[in-house]
UniProtKB/TrEMBL annotation:
It comes from the Bacteria. It comes from Enterococcus malodoratus ATCC 43197. Residues 20-102 form the Rhodanese domain. This is Rhodanese family protein. Signal peptide: none annotated. InterPro entries: GlpE_sulfurtransferase (IPR050229), Rhodanese-like_dom (IPR001763), Rhodanese-like_dom_sf (IPR036873). SUPFAM superfamilies: Rhodanese/Cell cycle control phosphatase.
Length: 103
């Protein structure tokens, strides 16, 4: 059922950088290849095509991808599963902080 009032919760990459100072769950929904190419240290790789099987214990999860489109889809799926999912707007394209992996 589509709820007109349910909007996708989103934060900027700048706000995410602040949030990362706390223990949070950050899911990177890009492909394993993209993830290996460079990701945020605290991010766990959980590709979009497997997100419907996600079974984390926490209620609140942050979701990132390359541009924000796949993470937006993942947030919808996670919300249907009862999570408080938050999309990182602009994704890795806008991320200014340190990354692990890649070049």
């Amino acid at each position: 059922m589509f709820n007109l009032f349910q909007r996708n919760t989103a934060i900027s990459t700048k706000d995410l950088a602040e949030k990362l100072k706390e223990p949070i769950t950050l899911l990177d929904v890009r492909t394993p290849e993209e993830y290996r190419g460079g990701h945020i240290t605290k991010a766990s790789n959980y590709p979009l095509n497997k997100i419907d099987r996600y079974q984390g214990k926490e209620k609140e999860v942050y979701v990132i991808c390359q541009s924000g489109m796949r993470s937006k889809q993942a947030v919808k799926i996670l919300k249907q599963k009862g999570y408080e999912a938050i999309n990182v707007q602009g994704g890795m394209n806008r991320w200014q902080g340190p990354t692990r992996g890649g070049k």
